[in-house]
Design brief:
Ac45_acc_su; mainly beta; VAS1/VOA1_TM; six-stranded antiparallel β-sheet; ATPase activator activity; membrane
Length: 198
Amino acid sequence: LSLKFGDIGNLKGLVIRFLLTTTYYQLSVQNWFSLHRLQLLYNHSIQATFNATRIYAPASYSYHCEHVSSLQRYDALLIPSSANDLSKLWEVTFIDFQIQGFNIQEGHFAYAKDCASFLSPAILMGLVMSLILLLVLAYALHMLIHLKSLDRHYECKASPAYFAQMKENDMGDEKEPLRSSSSESYELRNQQFCKIYI
C-alpha cells in the first residue's frame, strides 16, 4: 500500500510504502492482517525502513491508533530495521492513524480495532486497588456476620467466704466465730459475689 504526496512542493518525490501481510489463525478461525514494514522512498530510492510491531487486526476490520511513531514517547511501534541503516536519521509519527489493507467496501474503513491496551498500567492499578477494597469489605462483612450479641445475665447470691484466723483488731464487728473441730474460722456476713453468664 503506497501513499504518494503528488505535487506538494518538496514532498513531490516522497512515497510512504506500507507492506501488509495476511495470516490465517486457526484459534480465531479468521484471517488477520498486520503491518510488517514501513518504507520511506524519495525519488524512487529507499531512504529508510522501519519494522512495525503490534499493528494488526482481523482482516475484516481496520486498525486505528492515536499515535504510530518511531519515537519512544509514543511507545515506538516503528523500529529501525537495522542499526547501520539511515532509518536512525528519520523520525516518523502518524497522528490519528488508521489503516485497512484488505476487504475494503465502498471506499470506507470497516470497524476499527484500536491500539489501546486493555491492560495498561493505569487499568492494572485500578484493578489492584479494587481487589484490595473488595477484600477489606469482605473481611468487614465476615466480622459483622460472626459478631455475637453480648447478652449478660447477672445473678448475685450471698455466699459465705471462709478465711483463716486473723488478728482480732483486723476483723472488727464483721466476724462471727464458727464452730469447727480442728481450727477456728470466721465468716464475713456481708460478703457477696456475682456470677456473670455470657
